[in-house]
Amino acid sequence: MKLILASTSPYRRELLSRLKIPFEVCSPEVDETPLPGEVPEQTAYRLAIAKAQSLAKDFPDALIIGSDQVATLDGLQLGKPHTHDNAVRQLTMMRGRSVVFHTALCLYNSRTGNIQAKEIPFTVHFRNLSAAQIESYLTKEQPYNCAGSAKSEGLGIALIERMEGDDPNALIGLPLIALIEMLNNEGMPVI
User: Fold this and answer.
1) pTM for this predicted structure
2) Averaged over 16-44, what is the pLDDT?
3) Which of the residues 2, 44, 71, 111 could staple to 148 if both were Cys, CB 3.0 to 4.6 A apart?
């Protein structure tokens, strides 16, 4: 069976390539707007499944990986900032505080209809940064397409005091530990 990554994220593509298994990348067509009353964990979970299933008709005999991430601070959802000013606002709000990144993963077998899905939380405790430090980071890294304006795999590690979670890859956007288990369950062992 083919392995398909339902994502345009270069970060997810890089993470999946670490497993040294062949895969294709295809962009899912999914409206990522949270539903009314939906909590962030539910949004991430629902969207991971929707992204994987959205490619089923194009790949009827494949294992399709969908993933989504929602960052929250005191229940407030933090999306991708897209602009410098929004990133400044996000990082200013997050300094000295803890943010939970809810990363959901789905492996969908389009041949059998089997769905494996899981939400993996990861907590990041941010340093109490000055406005000058935030500006310096944003000028150097420009993380405008990352939830919460921080890329831990790059210079963003300097923003972080400590992290808590089961899989550091979940923070980057693709929980590899859970994915390996799901692939094993589908008869596609990584090693």
Assistant:
1) 0.91
2) 94
3) 71
Residues annotated as catalytic (active site), given as ranges:
68
Residue 77 host element (H or E): strand 76-78
- pLDDT given for residue 120 in this prediction: 96
Can you tell me the distance from the alpha carbon of 171 to that of 100, in angstroms, rounded to the nearest whole number? 9
CA distance 3 to 32: 23
Say what the alpha-carbon torsion angle 81, 84, 124, 132 is, to the nearest 10 degrees. Answer: -160
What domains are defined for the chain?
Answer: 2-185 (3.90.950.10)
Mean pLDDT to the nearest integer, 173-190: 97
- Give the whole-angstrom CA distance, residue 111 versus residue 186: 11
Q: Is the pLDDT of residue 153 over 90?
A: no
d(CA 97, CA 115): 35
Percent helix, percent strand, percent coil in the chain, to nearest 5: 35, 30, 35
Residue listed under structure tokens 């990144």: 101
Contact by Cβ (8 Å): 142, 129: no
Residue 121: strand, helix, or coil: strand
Is residue 31 scored above 90 in pLDDT? Answer: yes
Distance between CA atoms of 14 and 6, rounded to whole angstroms?
13
Amino acid at 18: R
Using pLDDT thresholds of 50, 70 and 90, give the confidence band for residue 148.
Answer: confident
